[in-house]
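Quick start: read one record
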Amino acid sequence: MAEKNQEYPFVNANGHRRSDEESAPTFQSDELKRKKRIKLAIYIVAFVIFQVIVITVFGLTVMKVKSPKLRLDNVQFQTLTTSSSTSPSFDMSFTAQVRVKNTNFGRYKFDGSTVTFTYDGVAVGEVIIPKGKAGLKSTKKINVSVNLSSSALQNTGNLGSELNGGVLTINSSARMTGKVELMMIMKKKKSADMNCTLTVDVAAKAVGTLQCK
């Protein structure tokens, strides 16, 4: 009887049959790992970009320190005496508020300062502002009592003209120094300047206008 030719599958040295199907799971596993690595890299890049944006915004807003604003406000006259005769003069007293507006994300600690009131460039009175602090994003209101007199004026020609016109112009100026504290660790020196012009309605003994730059 003739022997029939038989085909036998290839067997590895370890006794297992080799098949293309055995390599498929390995390929899929490698592909899955590669996709996970790509996703991880994307997440890391996105996180870094987010951190850069946060730090930039933080630096441009919170960490940016601005000079506080110093203003005179809420003037209420108590007395006003004037004379427009051969020797023009005035004496007045009023209450007012000195406002320290702090727009920073940290409190502003300021030193004591002096507000000087002038007429025609000559000092006619002053008031002392004690040291203090304005909270973050807030306005510190300081109540003061002011007494002004024209006794220091040597040339009263302009004063006589103004009094005859029924208007008196007073200027106030000051320079306040201090430090803005950020996050309780950073301190930056900042100063605030006052430059206000007050016009007085002599007949009404009241404020005409009050403008601050």
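DSSP finds two helices and ten strands in the chain.
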